[in-house]
Amino acid sequence: MRKPILMESRLNEETWPTEELKAAQASLYKYLADFIPEKWGYTKYAIMGPAGKLLGIIAASKFGDNVDSYVGYIANIHEQQSKNHLTRNGMENLKTAVLQLIQLRQKSSERAFLKMLSSVDYGVYYMKVKEISERSEAKKVEKGGKVKTNE
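Above: the chain's sequence. Below: its structure in token form.
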């Protein structure tokens, strides 16, 4: 017979860093303004572009705490998948986001950090989907307005 597994229940002493998460989301969203995919798609993977890949490699601690390695890795992916080059402003936003995420990882437990990454992931995704839907609505109104004026 196996020994029973005992689990210790602890209260979560960590506070949810809402402001830091919003700042990281904003930085990643600003970075994605530079990303114009070669192939358009409406999947989460296509919409998030290299930002989604970044969150995965930070979760796995692929480069430890080396900000420049993460930025270089994502810049390489950006150059391969985007129609336009990464601008200086985009690079700064990317670097800021990586730095913010690494600082969050250092301040929190692994379990809490993975929840935070998921929050950032879906927060940025929501912002991009909202932007896409607003652009789509604007185009529909624009086309509708042109059709009415031509009649």
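The chain has one domain: 18-125.
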